[in-house]
Amino acid sequence: MADSHTGEDGSNGTATDEKEATTASASRRTLLKGIGAFATVGGAGVLASEAASAAEPFGEYSSPNGEVTIPPGEYTWDDDDLDIGSGDALVGGGDRGDVVVNMAGGTMDGSIAGGFENIVVRGDNKDSKAGIDVEDGAVIDGFHWPEGGQQSEDRCLYNPDGGDRATIRNSSWAWMVNNGAYTDKMPMTYENCASINNNIAGIRVGHRESDPNETTYIRNCLIAVTRTPANDDTNSPHARGIRMRQKGTFVIENCYFIYLDVDGTADLIEIHDGAEDSDVTIRNCAFYNDSGGDLVRDKGNGAASVTIEDCSFHGSGSSTIEPDYDGNGLVDKEVRFPYPSEITGYAVADEAEGVGSGIGPWGERSTGSSTPEETEEPTADPAEYDHTLVLEASEENPTSASARAGDFDLDVVVDGEVALGDLSEPRQDELVENGDGTVTINVNNLMPGELDSYRFTGEIVDYQKDSGYDVTVSLDGTTTTLEELAGGDSGTDGSTDGSTDGSTDGSTDGSTDGSTDGSTDSGTDGSTDDGSTDDGTDGGSGSTGSLTKRVVVDGSDSGRPTNYTFTVSGDVERDETTSARTADGTDWDRVRDFAEGGKVIGLVGSGVDAYRFSGEITSVTVDGEATFTVERGP
User: Fold this and answer.
1) How far is CA 373 from CA 100, 355, 376, in A?
2) Contact yes or no for 58/77 (Cβ under 8 A)
């Protein structure tokens, strides 16, 4: 049966000339975005929100100039024009789910080339066609439409043309008749998203108008078909999960598929004949299938290069994997299938029809917690643990031809008790009890520049690190290596020589981020090279007298956390006299900063962090709103 060809020629979208700077959105491990770890999951009832005020026209905010925050409340969509250009952003205020836009008339469509964050749309579409054009550089974070369009020509997200990349995070869409996310013209990144009961394809990808050698990533996403998808005379029910429609390189990892025995199901993953020469990697995915659809179907005559690793099958339906593949394929392991809210961090995602306790593998929702993170691995009270371990992946990973960015896995074995720290990512990182009194910390998919932290009692006794990657390690404020911590008896995959673990290059671009003004009260220019003529020949004694230069990191008045790193060619130590914690003692201001071996890993809220150093600054990264100042000594 042929699927709908609506938009196949690209006529559904209008090209835009605004394809310039990308609006960045840090991962949850980077602390600019990490403030969400301390927020509760918001929820919006049908056409209601606890934080809502009287409904106002959405059109007053739908075309922002620069970054605009829309106040918490209810708004009405009545044929409004959503237009967010490159460099612009519309951000929903309040907690997650506190901005609700109710469909009253017209079509939910528009164009996003900038940022779109924390917006919930309620109600189905009013006209025959719906879909937001996702342009090059767009970053959509926390967009939810649980009712969907339910019209013949709708798709929640659409690529009108090609580009370098667009990113969708922490979002959900449901009940679209003509594809859930129809994004097959440029490389895409999907993280922590849920597609529920969408027809044709839950997520459709390809590089039709872009470089096929680039990579599309689909990570930690949930694709479910639990009811017969909405359809009409132009779209028969035929719901694929992830559909690779055009040639590209595709990585599907840590995803969940739930397909029940209902009318209109198709294959859970499909490699279309248009993608026959693609490179496809599917790893650590869980398939719950009661339907007759294949887990993976190849319509491209076996021409795709396919790798399937550490995936699992559950349910009573087909477990067929059609293409030949490399890797260990399906393995036996116990899996808990999460709710959409646990994937996205938004309670409203569970309100899509076809989601609920007793449906497929879903059991009772966890109680006693308002956040998905807390139902899995709660972060630790520092007072209950003796040690803090911080890991930072090098900004330059991968460092070998065989390595891929974001594929960095690391296991650390601890003889004692372990808990996730403030910088960890509960849905990615795992703590596994080994039955012999030890616990393995599974650090999964550590992206370049990301940080993870853990608290533990006892000692580190072993580790295993993927080859081709660098990581900086700090224990209780002292920079060290995993080899040193494990007594030299580690690297069980033969790939860890220990020499890379103390790497201090971390970040070599020298950037202080556009939000740092670099100003200083001492009249220096604030550049990362302080301009002094000091050749660093002070001997590196580490005494305060020889550390004649100073770095001051002044946090934002908003209190939002900023994580930063810098490396010096000499010695560095914290300047306790100049440093100042905030009076309220927010969580991020209590996190210890690490200064050792010329490398500083720090986190500041609205306080001030200061360091004295010798030599020259060789690299700087600032991810947030803090001001980074270099002061010249006498």
Assistant:
1) 24, 19, 6
2) yes
| Domain membership flag for residue 7 | no
Residues 519 and 437 in one domain: no
Residue 22 in any domain: the answer is no
3-state SS string over 171-198? CEEECCCCCCEEECECCEEEECCEEECC
CA dihedral 228→233→235→239, nearest 10 degrees, is: 20
Does some domain include residue 10? no
Question: Are both 354 and 454 inside the same structural domain?
Answer: no
280 and 197 inside one domain: yes
- Distance from C-alpha of 359 to C-alpha of 318, rounded to nearest angstrom: 19
Relative to beta strand 594-596, strand 599-604 is antiparallel
Closest to 560 in 3D by CA, of 620, 625, 485, 481: 625
Same domain for 175 and 292, yes or no, is yes
Look at 182 and 504; give whichever has higher pLDDT: 182
pLDDT at 582: 64
Cα separation, 58 vs 82, whole angstroms: 9
Peptide bond into 187 cis (omega under 30): no
Q: What does the alpha-carbon distance between residue 353 and residue 262 come to, in Å, rounded to a whole number?
A: 14
Half-sphere exposure of 305 (CA within 13 A, CB side): 7
Same domain, 255 and 343: yes
DSSP 117-144: EEEEEES--SSSEEEEEE-TT-EEEEEE
Q: Two tokens at 567?
A: 């490396």
Q: What share of the chain is helix, strand, coil (3-state, %, to 5)?
A: 5, 35, 60
List the structure tokens of 330: 């399906």
Structural domains in the chain (count): 3
Tell me the average pLDDT of the chain: 77
Confidence label for 491 from pLDDT (cuts 50, 70 and 90): low
Give me the phi and psi of 441, to 5 degrees please.
-90, 115
CA distance 551 to 563: 15
Cα(574)–Cα(550) distance, rounded to whole angstroms? 9
Q: Which of 439, 470, 485 corresponds to the end of one domain?
A: 485
Instruction: Write the pLDDT tens digit of every residue in 401-460.
Output: 555 555 677 889 999 998 877 655 544 567 888 888 899 888 877 777 777 888 889 999
With contact defined as beta carbons under 8 Å apart, do 425 and 452 qualify? yes
Cα separation, 381 vs 459, in Å, equals 18
Indicate if 356 and 422 belong to the same structural domain: no
Both 163 and 109 in one domain: the answer is yes
326 and 415 share one domain: no
Q: Domain of 245? A: 31-376
- Say if residues 33 and 25 touch (Cβ distance below 8 Å): yes
488: left (phi over 0), alpha (psi -120 to 50) or beta: left
Question: Residue 526 — pLDDT band, cuts 50, 70, 90?
Answer: very low
Q: What is the DSSP letter of 265?
A: B
Q: Are strands 471-475 and 478-480 parallel, antiparallel or unpaired?
A: antiparallel
Give residue 546's identity as a one-letter amino acid code. Answer: S
Tell me the pTM.
Answer: 0.56
Predicted confidence (pLDDT) per residue in 288-301, tens digit: 999 999 999 999 77
The whole-number average pLDDT for the span 164-185 is: 94
